[in-house]
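Structure ticket #2291
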Amino acid sequence: MDMNSVTHKNLWKRLYHAQHEFHKPYSELRRKFPDACKDWLFKLDFKNMTQPFKIHKIFNEMRNLTYVSDGLILTCCDTPYISGTDPTLLKWKPSEENTIDFKIKLEFPKYIDNDLPKHDPNREYTNYDVKPRFKLYVWKGGDAPHQHESVEVNIKRNGGEFKNSFQNYDEWNELEVSDEQWDKLKKSGESFNGRIAECRQRQNGSWEMLRFRDDKMNGNHINVVLKILKSIEDSVTKEELVELEPQVKARWEERERIKRKAQQQQHDFVHHNSHGHVHNSQNNTKPPPPAAAVPEKRKLEAEQPKQNKREKLEDEESGKVTDDEEFYESDGFEEMPSHKN
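Resolution: structure written out below.
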């Protein structure tokens, strides 16, 4: 933000920077110049976040969202931003909303014309007039050798026929497609072989397709697939989450007490050490190391340059918000939402 990295900061400070240095100026721009902004192809909203012990309010607020939400994301407040996969994130979805992205392979049956002799090359051919089997393939990782080539290059390489590569994929299961669905797919005139499809497992174990994911080059990695299936097996319901709110709140408050105690210990240590330094400079003796170790700050926080007292005083006099004062202004759910009829 403003040419300064904030990835090392905790969640609340990152949200503060995003809100004050990006979203508020953006909203003010749209307010002052509505005519100039009306043709923009996008609109940005700042998602509200709140403590996990207010889950019942979050579920109520979902009815007022301007976008479709399929679940909750629980984000750690004290860790820095992690690019790629953040192991501290927890995502909750209802079990029926858990989906997996597979690669589809269509297998049409062979037709044998028994009226033709066995040596006739036209005796056996692929029957494209019947519904094929929709095989689901799971990605094992890695890129296929010709994954990024154009359609024209693919056709030329395969002797005039376009062929999808299923290298680095293993057969996983089969998609259930009714005759009515197959007729609808045929009428669309689209190609389906080799496309990524978002699928959901029914209670009877069969798989159904929800939509195609043409925005993805590959399906879910097999490790992700196994984790999703495990989460479906050990699913937690919305009602169970709401029921656990008191326990979640108690744990949250306990962590806050521990943090405040650690901060007080650190403050006392710094205060004691500064007085000890003055006293020892007069006696020209070195004090023994403190008996009790003070809780260390996170490594990433400790590595960041700290303002000296003069810089901090100047910031306070000028009204500039210091690093210690950064906070996310609103959790967005302090008041119960008003629902339109």
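Closing remark: The chain has a mean pLDDT of 80.
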